[in-house]
Write a structure and sequence with these properties.
single chain, alpha+beta, Butyryl-CoA Dehydrogenase, subunit A, domain 2, Butyryl-CoA Dehydrogenase, subunit A, domain 3, four-stranded antiparallel beta sheet, 11 helices
Length: 389
């Protein structure tokens, strides 16, 4: 479908596509197999301006005044993910870690942290999840106690994307246990601060070129000036961040699905069985058609949501959850069917679709599982119905 991208948006698509084909495709298998973090590719992204798409021009990014840059971010993530969802995540996860600063940070914090992220000199990461606080984020145990002009952080964060590689971390910690979720506060923690270390690099099923580590805080001293917003507003910042970042996950899922369809379509026109191309079999044709329909529906929902956010909508939690849920479910179905089209070859690591299937799975899990997205959507629907009455 023609989504009538403007000249700047089309340039982003073309730039990301060229980078993906020339720089990412030749190394994706090696980086996946050996779990290599793509710092060299990050530098390439930075060189062509992809690292600051969602950051205001005022701080060195490409987002125009009164524009959040969500559509630009999604376009780039989609194109990169068509080739490798794991490598594209270096940039996408950095956006997740940066959103709390963009949305709730002080002017001083923005001036200090946003320019190097926009320039690709530093990556960011978002730290909310803990061993016993996944979907139930309110069960977190990481604490922050104020002492003079500093906060002392203690606890661990688990499964943090870009963990150990990022220089800037937005961390949610409990400052007042008696207030429940209203007792959480958001902090900016820098790599190298005393008392801040990392656990082992996780050995994952998919997105293996992305680094996932545990963050460990042992009497970590964080300056009070690094509090995002006010004490006690941590969960507000976390929810606001996820509402803005979930379209990025949808874009990753959409890209992976599109890449898988492209591979399956090309293979079906080459592979012969019973003396003919398998693309002539109606069973294969129907699989390809269904894959294409679902992908286009996911793209329409994602682009509409991204446009809605960029246009200044104030309440888009439902739509954000919808596009993330639908695109991730589509990615899993499409990649599974792509493997099926390839048959036995699809199960082999020599072909890219088995990796795409592995990479797709995480999009149903992080930044809120598919089940959490359904909860969010249903809650909003019910509240909207109540308001109408």
């Amino acid at each position: 479908m023609n989504y009538f991208l403007n000249e700047e948006e089309q340039m982003i698509v073309d730039t990301a596509r060229e980078l993906a084909e020339k720089k990412i495709k030749p190394v994706r298998e090696k980086y996946d197999e050996e779990e290599i973090f793509p710092w060299d590719i990050v530098k390439e992204m930075a060189a062509v301006g992809l690292c600051g798409l969602y950051i205001s021009e005022e701080y060195g990014g490409m987002a125009h005044k009164n524009e959040k840059g969500i559509m630009k971010l999604c376009l780039a993530v989609e194109e990169l993910s068509k080739v490798c969802g794991g490598i594209s995540l270096a940039m996408a996860a950095s956006a997740l870690g940066t959103f709390p600063i963009i949305l709730g940070g002080s002017e001083e914090q923005k001036k200090k942290y946003l320019p190097p992220i926009a320039a690709g000199e530093k990556l960011a990461a978002f730290a909310l999840t803990e061993a016993n606080a996944g979907s139930d984020a309110g069960a977190m145990r990481t604490t922050a106690v104020k002492k003079g002009d500093k906060y002392i952080l203690n606890g661990t964060k688990q499964w943090i994307t870009n963990g150990g590689e990022a220089e800037i971390y937005t961390v949610i910690a409990i400052t007042d246990k008696s207030k429940g979720t209203r007792g959480a506060t958001a902090f900016i923690v820098e790599k190298g601060m005393p008392g801040f270390t990392f656990g082992k690099k996780e050995n994952k099923m998919g997105i293996r070129a992305s680094a996932t580590r545990e963050l460990i805080f042992q009497d970590c001293e964080v300056p009070a000036e690094n509090v995002i917003g006010k004490e006690g507003t941590g969960f507000i910042h976390a929810v606001n961040t996820l509402n803005h970042s979930r379209p990025g996950v949808a874009a990753q899922a959409l890209g992976i699905a599109t890449g898988a369809l492209n591979e399956a379509l090309a293979y079906s026109r080459q592979r012969e069985q019973f003396g003919v191309k398998i693309s002539t079999f109606q069973a294969i044709q129907h699989m390809l058609a269904n894959m294409a329909v679902e992908i286009e529906a996911a793209r329409a929902l994602l682009y509409s949501t991204a446009r809605m956010i960029d246009a200044g909508a104030t309440d888009f939690a439902k739509e954000s959850a919808m596009c993330k849920y639908f695109a991730s479910e589509v990615a899993m179905r499409v990649t599974t069917n792509a493997v099926q089209v390839f048959g036995g070859y699809g199960y082999m690591k020599e072909y890219p679709v088995e990796k795409m299937m592995r990479d797709a799975k995480i999009t149903q899990i992080y930044e809120g599982t598919s089940q959490i997205q359904l909860n969010e959507i249903a809650t909003k629907l019910i509240k909207e119905q109540v308001k109408k009455k």
